[in-house]
Amino acid sequence: MSRNFFAVISLLLQLFQILNVHCLSYIFRRANVLEKAQYWENNISPCENDQIHFDKGEITVALIADGLHSQKIDLPNNGILFFGKRTELGKPGNWQCKRRRNAEEVYFKQSPSLGFYNGSNWLVSKDGILWRPALHVLQVPSSQDTAIIPSDSGARILLEDFVTIGALILAGQKINFNTKDIMEMKYDEMSTLSSFLLSIQHLGWLM
User: What is the mean pLDDT of residues 132-148?
Assistant: First the structure.
């Protein structure tokens, strides 16, 4: 059989995969969580008596999900710190090391804005089961799908074009939009101290 025949069969299988998938759920990955070593310079998390620094030249978005104790916190000039349901400032978190003999200065290293159209930033759920589609068109939410932004994250989402999705859920609540020109949206659920920041550049949401 010719190569063209196999190419046609492959294309038909991919088209069948698209037509056979409906209403997927997409969960945006967590980012900028203080408890994760990957968000600290050289993967060095703060111990109980260390001094914590944020980059004053950057707009900082970060989540403190657990306890946090330090000798000093050098807050950023611009940004938002979110607090999780279990946050206790002044109490060492389970993720922190004990006091060092000599306190150190540690630096928070946040991730850059994460692209909406980057499939690696989404976890895809098909009928309640995590699924990794091979086609890029199925790796990001579309007009038939539900996009879920969890509250236990400090992610900033970069949208470089118009987006059409079936539904948007922030911190467990469905959000409805009536505007096509949102430059920045902030969601703050003060009752549980769980929050989320979504930065949008030059686009609108179409629901």
Answer: 80
